[in-house]
Design goal:
Helix content is 45%, strand content 16%. The mean pLDDT is 90. It is built from 10 helices and 11 strands. The strands form 3 sheets. It has a 4-stranded mixed beta sheet, with helices on both faces. A 4-stranded mixed beta sheet has the order 4-3-2-6. Strands 10-9-11 form a 3-stranded antiparallel beta sheet, with helices on one face. α3 runs antiparallel to α4 and α6 runs antiparallel to α8. It has 2 domains: 73 residues, Ribosomal Protein L15, Chain: K, domain 2; 202 residues, CRISPR-associated endonuclease Cas1, C-terminal domain (Four Helix Bundle (Hemerythrin (Met), subunit A)), CATH 1.20.120. It is an alpha/beta fold. The longest helix has 25 residues. The protein starts with a strand and ends in a 6-residue tail after the last strand.
């Protein structure tokens, strides 16, 4: 698995040559495909070959395509991410409602606790305490929608009572981009493990190809929220800043690593839990003071 996130913004041609990604523009550059983790194509003027796409898929490189506004619009996923895909899909279909509701409860509890910690770091202790209470009240499947109540308090505190996640503000643009980057990384790991991104444990929209990814990414959204608050409209390249989320310092199972690596461990622990092979989920934790 590679470690580089490569962003292409200009009119170039991308080719595969001798295990390298070759970038042909005003000058020619080469990057070893084995070093690439994620390739983000931010320009619609980029041309690339089928041979390159096939090689990227075989090396489990996540490819994200952006629209005319440079926002992520789609991604490349392999049909066969694992040698025993059919067995993994049978496992996925066999997950019981009881197990899925238990896992969803753990995911939501973690998400709300991360939101509470963020508010506490910002000095909003009253709202943070309120979210901690919501986290303690989450039931299997979150039947009382503690997630929704927590989100209202959380985003009202971040954006103010007049703020909305639906408005086309700089903050929301940053968040949408950051969420898309995290979702893509989660989808990559789901596919690499041989499971279907379409079949979620809570998200079940028939028009959403990434229901399971949307489920798994919920506790990670706060990382994009934290990053967004460090940026403003004068930030020259906020998209690159949000992409750098994948390289942020993270604790995973007590070890210092990056978010991108921690997501692999996290997703695999979720599958172990859903398949009844383990009792715990290894959630990524912010690693303060760790130099990556």
């Amino acid at each position: 698995m590679g470690f580089r996130t490569v962003v292409i913004k200009s009119r170039v041609k991308l080719e595969h040559r001798l295990n390298y990604l070759v970038i042909r523009g005003e000058a020619e550059k080469k990057i070893a495909i084995s070093e690439i983790n994620t390739l983000i194509l931010q320009s619609t003027a980029i041309a690339l070959t089928a041979s390159l796409l096939n090689e990227l898929i075989e090396n489990n490189v996540k490819v994200i395509f952006c629209d005319k506004k440079c926002n992520p619009s789609c991604e490349l996923l392999p049909y066969y991410g694992s040698y025993n895909v059919s067995g993994k899909i049978k496992e996925q279909i066999g997950w019981t409602e009881y197990t899925k509701k238990q896992v969803w409860r753990e995911i939501i509890v973690r998400k709300i606790k991360e939101q509470a910690a963020h508010l506490s770091d910002l000095g909003y202790e009253t709202e943070s305490s309120m979210l901690c209470d919501y986290a303690s009240e989450v039931t299997d499947g979150d039947m009382t929608n503690r997630e929704g109540h927590a989100a209202k308090v959380y985003f009202n505190r971040l954006f103010g009572d007049d703020g909305s996640r639906r408005k086309d503000t700089f903050a929301n643009i940053c968040l949408n981009y950051g969420y898309a980057v995290i979702l893509s990384a989660v989808n990559r790991e789901i596919a690499a493990c041989g499971y279907l991104t379409q079949l979620g444990i809570w998200h079940r929209n028939e028009y959403n190809n990434f229901n399971l990814g949307c489920d798994f990414m919920e506790p990670l959204r706060v990382l994009a929220d934290r990053k967004m608050l460090t940026l403003n409209e004068t930030t020259s390249d906020y998209k690159r800043e949000m992409i750098e989320l994948l390289n942020m310092p993270i604790l995973s199972d007590g070890k210092n690593t990056t978010l991108d690596v921690a997501i692999r461990t996290y997703v695999r622990s979720l599958f172990s839990k859903l398949n009844g092979k383990s009792d715990g989920i290894i959630f990524p934790q912010i690693s303060y003071g760790y130099e990556s």
